[in-house]
Amino acid sequence: MDFDLPMLFIQFVSGLSRAMVLFLMASGLTIVFGVMRVINFAHGAFYMLGAYLAFTLTNLLGPSVGFWVALLLVPTLICLLGAVVELVLLRRIYEKEHLLQILLTYSLIFVFNDAVKLVWGGEMRIVTLPEMLKGFVTFFGHRFPVYYLFIIGVGIAVAVLLWLVLKKTRFGRLIRASAEHREMVDLLGYNVGALFSMVFVMATWLGGLAGAVIAPTVRLSLGMDMEIIIECFIVVIVGGLGNIWGALLGALIAGQIYAFGILVLPQFAMAFLFALAALIILFRPYGLLGKGVQARV
Amino acid sequence: MARQVRRVLAVGVVLVLALVLCPGSAMSEAPIKIGLIDVYSGAGAAFGKQCLNGWQMAVDEFNAKGGLKGRKIELITRDDKFKPDEGLAHARELLLKEKVDFLGGTTNSAVALAVGEFAKARKKLFMVSISRSHRITGEKGHRYIFRGCPSADLECLAGGFYASSMPFKNYYVIGEDYEYGYSIAENFWRGLTMNKKDVAKVGESWCKLGETDYTSYLTALMAKKPDAAVLAFGASGLIPFVKQAKLFGLFEKVPCFAFGLGDSIFVKVLKDDMPTGLYAGSNYLWYYPNSEANKAFVEKCKKQFDDPLPSGIGIFGGYTSGKFLTDAILKAGTVETEKVINALEGLTIQTVIGSIAMRACDHQAVTATFWGKLAKTQEYPYPVMTNIVMTPADKVMPTCEEIADLRKKAK
């Protein structure tokens, strides 16, 4: 196989865009676990709902306006729903065993799927991009779509935003403290309940954003949440459950493994990722950036 | 007293007559049951539901003509959710609980193969109406399985034939990593190389089913600079692939062959995003042939199902499959499986695109395939196929001997 530099570069960029798609999803997944110790299987369902809302908004307002409105409005709507879910359902089970949490979040997938079926029906839907994001740019003779560059931009913006929130705000400091020493935060008299609510709202906001951003590149259908969520779980595990920078690192690795795996052995691109996840679980059970004392008995 | 006796006797006679006659008449009016197993939820549902409409059309025609000596057909549907194990469970349940006379349906070829094996074991007739894998009537075929819609063989061999008339030499194959994807690619390649010797595969890649992001595949494909590309995708993967490929401007740069893209489902879903410049194929087009009969068929779909753009994969496949089965039931004059199978072998049905025969040796309908280049025209608000070439199946079908060979080898 002959590789030239521009080709490797374009493959790198494509891996980067995939990484950002994964990061948008995985960040919400991992932060909920980090702070709340809840594995939110329904995270993908929030993403799917976000995509469908984006569909309705772009249809209603036309792609040139609707897309931007969706980008702003959808995450907000989804995080409001997230707040309701947290207050009404999740709140009741924090103290219960993990199995119940899994059952609850997993059952939410079915509830959301049926809700989507009721509102939008079972047919495939697509979201049209605004004209200005439709074209492609050429790097050294290789074409790359503007929209995927836009996705990379959104991913970077979200990463920066998360960094600012975590580093510079009291809320962020509490999140970090809670992820590391939860009981201590509790003992110091902070309202953990309110913190949890805010974290879940933030995570579902990210899920909604992912839905609105990814929707124009895929076809919407029931079960679309499952298509992406497995890879996101792998990303989260590789990076370290609960660690947001781990999710970013995991996504970057997954994206590049995929992009270059396709060049080398296209049939096994996905297998490479699974193999990596298996190795990580074997040798670093807490993931690349995950904290936790390795249990040696 | 005598009068009373007579009255009792009269009532008794009526009762006895009722007992004797009723079960008989009830039997002849009990509906013939066809159990349809197909995907009615999730991404594939668009086809499953339309295919059901096609079946319904054929069954309505059968029932309107009085059925089989008064016995009407009733369709019973089950959602396989695109999963072989679900499909198989439903097949069992339909047979044991619902006591259906025939089985039909399936979009996912893996479900078709699973239910096919079950039908073989239980000696029940199974009419496949959407699934395209050539294995279904190829090496995995048997006495109890029929297909009333085209197979990927016919469609993609025809596509390969069509491509062989063009000057492209270096091909790139990209497809979905499942039964149907490989089936499309394999047959396209056979059809192409049968007629044109100086072609080469410069690369291929297989994306996982349900992939959401094809960018890395697309950059890799375009970097190879092939003369042409074969897109071996099922419909639910073809839509996001085509959407993302359009963002790359792939179709202006690399001529692509996409079987199935001529189907109305894509116009319905993609709307303004429907691409142009690709070569597409379909087993039925709502705008070609532009005959009165075809227009009447379209009008009927519009009225009965509120569907002005009938799909070849969906409605037309369901209709031809239903028509084959109902015509065979009439011809056999019974619902006995073995007799209906004998009636089906070699049966010819009349459709709006001409007559279609059911080949006796492999139980595959001998359908035609339309190929052409997608372009915007004056007459339609969406891109349609232009310079349409129709390939009758007999030109590209594997022969009965080849099928027999395949089946022998598979054993």
Structural commentary:
Chain A has 297 residues and is mostly helical. Chain A is 72% helix and 4% strand. Chain A has helices at residues 5-36, 43-61, 63-88, 98-120, 146-168, 170-180, 182-187, 192-214, 224-239, 244-264, 269-283, and strands at 125-126, 136-139, 142-145, 219-220. Chain A has a two-stranded antiparallel ribbon with strand order 1-4. A two-stranded antiparallel sheet of chain A has the order 2-3. In chain A, strand 2 and strand 3 (142-145) form a beta hairpin. In chain A, 50% of the residues are buried. Mean pLDDT of chain A is 90; it is low at 293-297. Chain B is α/β, with parallel strands linked by helices. In chain B, the strands form 3 sheets. In chain B, strands 7-6-8-9-10-14-15 form a 7-stranded mixed beta sheet. A 5-stranded parallel beta sheet of chain B has the order 2-1-3-4-5, sandwiched between helices. Chain B has a 3-stranded antiparallel beta sheet with strand order 11-12-13, covered by helices on one side. In chain B, strand 9, helix 10 (264-270) and strand 10 (279-282) form a beta-alpha-beta unit. The longest helix of chain B is centred in the first third of the chain and has 28 residues, at 2-29. At the A-B interface, helix 1, strand 1, strand 3, helix 5 and helix 9 of A face helix 2, strand 7, helix 7 and helix 8 of B.
